[in-house]
Amino acid sequence: MKKEQKEQPILKPKIDLIFKLIFGTEPNLDILTDFLKCVLNIKDDEFIGIEIIDPHTKTEKINDKMSILDIKLNTTRGIINVEIQLNKYTDMEDRIIFGISKSITNQKHSGNNYKLKKVVTILITDYVLITEHEQYHDIFNYNSKKTGYTFSSSTEIHTLELPKLPDDYDNSNLWYWLKFIKSEKEEDFEMLSEQKPLVKKAYGVLKELSQDEQTRLLAEAREALEWDKVAIARNAKAEGLREGIEQGTRQGIEKGIEKGEEQKAINIARNMLKRGTPIEYILEDTGLDINTIKQLQNER
């Protein structure tokens, strides 16, 4: 008699791999489209079409850069990048600006024509990013501090902070999607599915992914890897701080913290090398120079 397969617990949509498999694949373009419309407030007559630049989602390596979902949205909004982060990094704001800069400089110009496609970044965080207010959705661009005049509309940053999301529906369609991404219990998914048809479809995709053994193993490994990075960062910073305190001066403390940050990057790079991460990704994620990475390779 064939043994029945045990029903696996539901996976978390906010795990970067699962998020990308739900929102970043061709069969789910309607899910992605509705999500983007809710975030960017795109009207139906403005929407033309959507193309996913990086459709590759399935992988056998847990260290592949799955957290960035590159999207080319064919509307007046231009190029859109969506990123989800579960853990807090001290340089997150600079990282976002760096990514926007790359998207701008990668655009080709002819002669004196510097007309830019708009670059929009949507950053979803599972931690409080902005402590100055309680809004879970904020928008940033180039505005005058004195008059509010928009100097340029070439860039736009949307922050979506899951911890700030209210428990109860706030009359926003975006609330449904963020509640879905944030949820972990099946009863919550069931409730959301009854309210919004495309969330019901997303939940169906999530259930299928949760029962796929390979996807489950990769998702659990990805989540563990993120927590490893945070632990390494905390330990390295604490080590640097202790060294600075022992020197007994503010300058020494600052130098100790700086050394701790460098050691954090080195430790992360070592782990990424062990897992076979491509060097270009290590350079981007750690900020280390190529010579340091090569030295770490030679240690192995």
Low-confidence stretches: 56-68
Which band does the percent of strand residues land in? 5-15%
The percent of residues in helical segments reads 40-55%
Secondary structure tally, helices: 10
Mean pLDDT over all positions = 79
Could you say how many structural domains there are in total? 2
- Spatial gap, N to C terminus: 50 Å
Largest sheet: 6 strands, mixed
Strands ordered across the widest β-sheet? 1-2-3-4-6-5
Series of H and E elements: HHEEEHEEEHHHHHHH
* Backbone structural class: alpha/beta
Total number of strands: 6
Rough outline: globular
Radius of gyration of CA atoms, rounded to a whole number: 21 Å
Written account of the structure:
This protein is an alpha/beta fold. The chain folds into two domains: 16-211, no CATH class; 224-299, no CATH class. The chain is 49% helix and 15% strand. The protein has ten helices and six strands; from the N terminus they run ααβββαβββααααααα. A six-stranded mixed β-sheet has the order 1-2-3-4-6-5, sandwiched between helices. Helix 5 (186-195) packs antiparallel against helix 6 (197-210), helix 7 (213-247) packs antiparallel against helix 8 and helix 8 runs antiparallel to helix 9 (279-286). The relative contact order is 0.12. The model is unreliable at 56-68 (pLDDT under 50).
